[in-house]
Amino acid sequence: MEKAGVSPSDLVEGVDTVPNGFHELFRLQSNGYQTLQL
Question: This protein's superkingdom (predicted)?
Fold first, then answer.
């Protein structure tokens, strides 16, 4: 987000951010969530 010039306050209300998207993705997958690759 920093590289794109976007701050958390620019996001719509109710959207949360995480420090590392890859770690969050792996955490969710280990909890049974599945991903779609486009």
Answer: Bacteria
